[in-house]
Amino acid sequence: MMQRPPPDDFLLKETNPHLGGGKITGDKLTSTYDLVEQMQYLYVRVVKAKDLPGKDVTGSCDPYVEVRLGNYKGTTRHFEKKSNPEWNQVFAFSKDRIQASMLEVTVKDKDFVKDDFMGRVLFDLNEVPKRVPPDSPLAPQWYRLEDRKGDKYKGELMLAVWMGTQADEAFPEAWHSDAATVSGADALANIRSKVYLSPKLWYLRVNVIEAQDLQPSDKGRYPEVYVKAILGNQVLRTRVSPSRSINPMWNEDLMFVASEPFEEPLILSVEDRIAPNKDEVLGRCAIPMQYVDRRLDHKPVNTRWFNLEKHVVVDGEKKKETKFASRIHMRICLEGGYHVLDESTHYSSDLRPTAKQLWKHSIGVLELGILNAQGLMPMKTKDGRGTTDAYCVAKYGQKWVRTRTIIDNFTPKWNEQYTWEVFDPCTVITIGVFDNCHLHGGDKPGGQEIQGLESGVKKMGEIHLAVRFTCSSLLNMMHMYSQPLLPKMHYIHPLTVSQLDSLRHQATQIVSMRLSRAEPPLRKEIVEYMLDVGSHMWSMRRSKANFFRIMNVFGGLIAVGKWFDQICNWKNPITTVLIHILFIILVLYPELILPTIFLYLFLIGVWYYRWRPRHPPHMDTRLSHAESAHPDELDEEFDTFPTSRPADIVRMRYDRLRSIAGRIQTVVGDLATQGERLQSLLSWRDPRATSLFVLFCLIAAIVLYVTPFQVVALLTGFYVLRHPRFRHKLPSVPLNFFRRLPARTDCML
Asked: Which superkingdom does the taxonomy of this entry point to (predicted)?
C-alpha cells in the first residue's frame, strides 16, 4: 500500500514574500520586477581585447578569457590566431554564493598541453558600482593587463563590471554561476530563459465542387472518382462521387490547419478507384498558399477552375501530359473568422479569431511572478545520487515563457516575471515545472522531459507564484460576459465535433513541431503536456471524478427534494403551515411568483458572499480523485496509445471496463424505457392504456375549462401537501398506470 500524504499537503498556501526588494517609498523608481524577490548578481561583460602578445615568431595567439570568483570559473570561447579578438560575453555570479573579495579576469592562450598565461585584471568587489534599470547600461572600459606580480603587461582588455539584479537586460543571455557544471554551447543554450510565440494558425477550407473532362485509362467502365488533398502531413479525401462519369460532382468541404509562414503548397489529386487497393491518378495540381483568398466573415469567396496536370512515364522518366487538360472546380479560402483550437476547451487561454482585424481591445494585463519551487523530487541520477535540473514553463495566449534551468537543486529560485495582454477574463493560464534531461551530453535515450508537480497521489513539490491582473476598463470587462465565448463564425458555420477533434490534433502537432525548431527548442513532449493532448483518453479516475461532479451539481436539487418531502410529511408542522400560507398567497396573486423567485436568489447570493473563495482556483486532488485512485488505474491512465502493457494486464483492464460499461448500459436502457413509456401513451400499442389516457385527457380538458385555474392550483397544492394521515404507503394511481405502459425492451434481442 502506498502511503498517502495528508490532504492539507495539496491545499493552496498563502505566503508573504519580500517582493520587489521591499516597499517603494518616496521618489524611488518602480522596478519592472515587483512581483518577485530581488536577486543580486555580479555582472562581468567581456567585450574584446587588443595588442595581445603572441607565443611564436608570427605574433599569433589563440586567446580566451577566464573569469574567476572564488571557486566559480567561467570561460569565453577561444579564437585561433587572433590578437584582437571580440567576445562580447556576459558572466553573472549570484551574490548569495560569492565567497571571495576579489574578481580575477585572466586572458589565456589556448594550448594542447597547458594554456599559457597572458595577463589578468583584478577587481575589488567593494569598489564595484551598482546599477538598477532603467539606468543606461554601464559603458565598458579598457584595462591594461597585469602579470602575477602586478606589473603592467602588454595588451588591453575591454570590460564592464557592475552589481545588478535579475531585471538587468544582460540577465537572460548571461552565463550563470549556478550553471558552472554545464559545458558546451548547445547545453548552455538549453538552460537560458526564453520567450516563444506560437505560429499564427488558420483554418483552410477547400470546397471541392466538381471536375470536368477527366480521362480514365479504362474507357469501358464507370469511374469511381474521389479527390485527395495534401497539406504538409495532413491528408484528407472526399467520398467517391455518386455521379460515376467523367464529370463528377462532390460539393464537399475539406478542412485543414495551416500556419504562417506558408512553406508548403496545397496539393490536390483526382483519383479513380480501379480496385480495392489500386488507385489511378487522373490529374494533379499544386496551389501555393500565398495566393489563397482570406475570408473574414460568412460571405462566400469566388470559385475558381484549376487545370489538372497528368504525368506519364516515357522511357522511364516522368513527363507532363498536356494534350488535353482536365479541370477541377473549387472554392478555397483561409478562414480568418474562426479561432483555431489548439488547447483543451477547459483550459483555453485565447479565444480570439485568427484575423487581427477582428480582434477587440485588450481588457487588461496579466503579470506572473515565478518565484521558486520547494520539495522537488529527484528525477535522475548523477554520480550515484538523485538530482533535478528544474525549469518552469508558462503558457497564455500565443506567448510561451520558459525560465532558466537551475542546475542540481531541489529548491530552485527563479524570480522571473512575465506579462501578457488579456482579451477575455474567462481564460486560463497554464504553468508547469519540468526537469531538463538535455544537459551533460545531450539527450538521454528514453529520457522524458516531463514531470508535473503532481502525479497521482505522489506530491512532486510546490511552486511559489505571484499573480496580478490589472484591469484597464471594468466596463469593458463586464461587457465581455454578454459576448459569445468564441468568434461568431463558430456559430454561423459551426464545425462538427469530429472536425474539431481532428483539427485540434493537427494544430497541436504544428505548434509542437514549430516550437521544437526554435533555439533553444521547447521540446515536443513539453508542448503536448501543456496543451493537454491526452485529455480525451480514457481514465478511470477522471470518470469517477466526473460522476461525482454530476452528483454534486444535482445535490442542490436532491436537497430541495428532501426538504419538500419533509414538508409534505409534516416533519415540522410550523414550517408546513407557513408553506401553505405562502402557497395560497402566490396562487391568489400570481404576479408575485417571479419577483419572489428572483428576490430569493438575490438573498441566497448575498448570504453566500460571506463564504466566497478567498484563494484562486488550483488543482484539487480531492475533486480529481487523485487521493483515492488505485495504482493500476493511474498506470492505465498514463499508458501509451496503443497500449504497451502485457497481455494479462490488458485483459484484466478490458474485463473491468466491460463491467463498468455494463452498468452504464443498464442505466441508459432504463432511461430509454421511461421515454418509450411516455411515447406509448398515444401510440395505441396498448389500446386499453391509450383509451384510458385519451378519455382522461377529455375529462381533464372539460373540468379545467369550467373550473377557475386558481381553484385547480389550490386543490392540487393541498393534495400534494396533505397530512400523512391521509396518505397511503402504496404507489399512487398515476405511477401504477405509468409503470404498466409498454416499452420496446421486449422487442430487443
From this structure: Eukaryota
Global pTM value = 0.82
Taking only the tens place, the pLDDT of each residue in 438-478 is 775 443 333 334 444 444 456 788 899 999 999 988 888 99
Expressed in angstroms, the distance from the first to the final Cα of the chain is 44
C-alpha cell at 46: 567581456
C-alpha span between 629 and 651 (Å, rounded): 20
Question: How far is 225 from 234, CA to CA, in rounded Å?
Answer: 20
Say what the alpha-carbon torsion angle 376, 381, 384, 386 is, to the nearest 10 degrees.
10
Q: Name which of 390, 394, 453, 391 is nearest 418 in CA terms.
A: 394
* DSSP H or E segment with residue 147: none
Could you tell me which of 676, 664, 666 has the C-alpha nearest to residue 739? Answer: 676
Cell numbers linked to 657: 471496463
CA 415 to chain centre: 23
Q: Kindly give the residue spans of alpha helices, DSSP state H, lying in 29-184.
A: none
Cα–Cα distance list, 199 to 202, 258, 262 (Å):
10, 10, 11
The three cell numbers of residue 538 are 480514457
If you ran DSSP here, which 8-state letter would residue 38 be given?
-
Measured CA to CA in angstroms, residue 506 lies from 232, 334, 470 at distances of: 10, 16, 34
Task: Read off φ and ψ for residue 75, nearest 5 degrees.
Answer: -130, 150
Q: How far apart are CA 481 and CA 362, in angstroms?
A: 14
